[in-house]
């Protein structure tokens, strides 16, 4: 194996004299030129960085062996949860190594399935992905969206389910939107932005979303504008038709804030105005279903862990609202109605609990799950007596169960066959205390019988933001890590939604440092409890989790042996100036605000890299077409880190081409990236394979 002490020569990253004045504080931004991903200078820099990175990775003898094992394990049938519309069932399936999963349809669950849409045939390299779908009420038409190279931009089309032929409908410039059909099967509601500049569409800021109705057979230019707010450029609109077909529910979002508004329109009256039911951004309201004029919502209003309320739209003053299911000790994630009963999905210490209540809120039963893990699904219509759900854990590949709402019995519907023995591994959940004394849970998974001698290579992964909950789930990639003797640790740090809105808010804006303290606390616990030591400890995270990794290595470069920040938000002073970045100011704050600037500047990874510091071995990953977290974040961070770094450890950036933020990434690219990641850690942490 080549010596990891051999210094690497990085491409030149010239420095400009760009300086910005933030409320009296002068901040240099010497790598501003890297914000233009298409300039000749940036393209040359990307090619040079990739040459260094891929040359380094290709020299690692175990990389090919790791890739072969990943490919072998990945090659198993993966089924999605079946769902029913009209007279037919629909589900996704991947034969094993297909780049994209295929959508099938069948009349009954025992029938021979028929391919409805195979995204693998839409591009040679699998970089065109199916990113959204909606099936008409009669089950005869499929509205579906495609995204190319991982972009958030979608194009929607319509397909005849019976013939498999596309109709002439073609809608463009859609982003952050689904489609919801009217019950006459004649069209659907969707949200779009105005046409962007073709050259800068992957960087330009997205404002002024509008809600439209598209009637089948008509050009997009004739779509009916249902609702927009020229006075509110940041508002986004999500339109959904109620199961009884009577109402259009309009949920209005403002950035990534979990607080929303709810308006509605009576679809039985062509002249009906849009009614503002909830017109204050004070809480989260998720529409569940309705009984005529009575609307049911899951909300965190006066209940940070969630509850169910009923609002009669004929008499909708807040004092008339009724509580159906009160807040409990667990966090209520989502609710549906099946068999005229509420199916409530709770999180208890970051693992799933499913409870069923009648429509008056009386407890009926708890669904017995196979263990500590994550359950999802339970979709269907109001009167359905059967439904499906998936269950997964760190050592259980996603298994699909059929659930009888009447008897409460679960039966296995599809169980994947993966080439490993789950009994060889164990998962435990521990609780540790963060810097300020807060109790934080952490899952730890590894091969049975490892020695707690402080010598195990350990992969510590978290997210910590946007109310997102990190729950147990199976990953072939992580299995390969654990087969090599690695430990996987996942703490449920603040900023997430595991314990409701209070847990989320404890990691937002000027409290963001709590998130980093929680993650650092997890690392210190693993070392103190002899799982690992600094030289064998890697930290990782993606997107907001990439920010987490960037902040932690700039705050505690001494604590970690390696770092893998993926598609991270690294420039906390300028993130809001690109694509949908402005929407994150509700989570992070904004450098434009003199009161919020100091906290952002204090932890912004790009601005806290210190000269002549030995940083951990770092492999930054991003993609040249990421239009969620633009690659400039990773580019500028890499350039600054390479310049400041004083040690011998490599500081590399791996820039994927024809890929975006991660959604829709083809299997082949996922396997390549996982092989590179584990090979990098095998070398830098001195793992014996």
Automatic annotation (TrEMBL):
Residues 1-21 are annotated as: Disordered. InterPro entries: AB_hydrolase_fold (IPR029058), Pept_S9_AS (IPR002471), Pept_S9A_N (IPR023302), Peptidase_S9_cat (IPR001375), Peptidase_S9A (IPR002470), Prolyl_oligopep/macrocyclase (IPR051167). Keywords: Hydrolase, Protease, Serine protease. Residues 13-415 form the Peptidase S9A N-terminal domain. Residues 474-686 form the Peptidase S9 prolyl oligopeptidase catalytic domain. Its EC number is 3.4.21.26. GO terms for molecular function: oligopeptidase activity; serine-type endopeptidase activity. Signal peptide: none annotated. This is prolyl oligopeptidase. It comes from Nostoc flagelliforme CCNUN1.
